[in-house]
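Record passed on here:
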Amino acid sequence: MNSKLTSWGLFLLICCIWGSSFILMKWGLYDSKWNPILSPYQVAAIRLLSAGIVMLPFLRPALKNIPRYVVLYVLLSGWLGSFFPAFLFCIAETKVDSAFAGTLNAITPLFVIITGAVFFNLRTTTIKVIGVLVGLAGSALLVYANSSRPLGEIAYAGFVLLATFFYGCNVNMISKKLAGISSMHIAAIAFAGLIPPSLAILLSTGYFNLPLATHGYVTSTIAGCILGIVGTAVASVLFYILVKKSGGLFASLVTYGIPFVAISWGIYYGEKITGLHILGLAIILTGVYVANLKGRAVRNRDTT
């Protein structure tokens, strides 16, 4: 019972942190009047650089204790679970609302099932598939609720979908390849490995030549740093713990709770929320419940 309470506590905390990440991306990209400040590449790079720096004190112990043969998987986890999605989401939010991006993030569990079955030979159950599809239907309804926007802006949702594909791959790889590795060690090595490319991107985009002491740039930089320290480093450690504690599919379901937080921020900042959004969220919540029921296995290809 205590284990289940801990899992749900982690679940809710991660939902709150990652659900708030989408509005923080907007704060990094724009000032209070929605004038552009930093580019999406700069915001994402600041986020990843901050995450890497805050994890540096844990890098040496991690390298001493982690088996050498899994280092490559840990570094790959950093790219799949943080690097690519960070840039894809920031690019998407130059055209779509933060609540919309947070909502589309709920498609991740579908990619967990697909990539798990195709690349990792993992089993699933009929009831879990039904639950994920129900949640996906709710997400589709939420996308439809935003269909009044120009087609060119809606097309940027593709960047979010690609990010969720990477998330799905990462969830399965952690569960399959890194199950016996300390969550702190995974995060320390994965994020430290992202420092060089993130710094290179900031240098190449001219970030350090900007008037960084002015209010707009200070605010945007702080938003990017909070994204990195809390939204990436801290939340990812918690997520690794949840994956190993409760399994990849349950952990991926945090993406169903994220829209509640993201849409709440959207309401606060005047983004358009309709009755269809509320209905979609109700359907998503139903999917979360159904996917966590026990059911008969429909795939049994895992021979390891």
Notes: The chain has 15 helices and no strands. Confidence is low (pLDDT under 50) at residues 296-304. The two ends are 30 Å apart (CA to CA). The chain has one domain: 45-291.
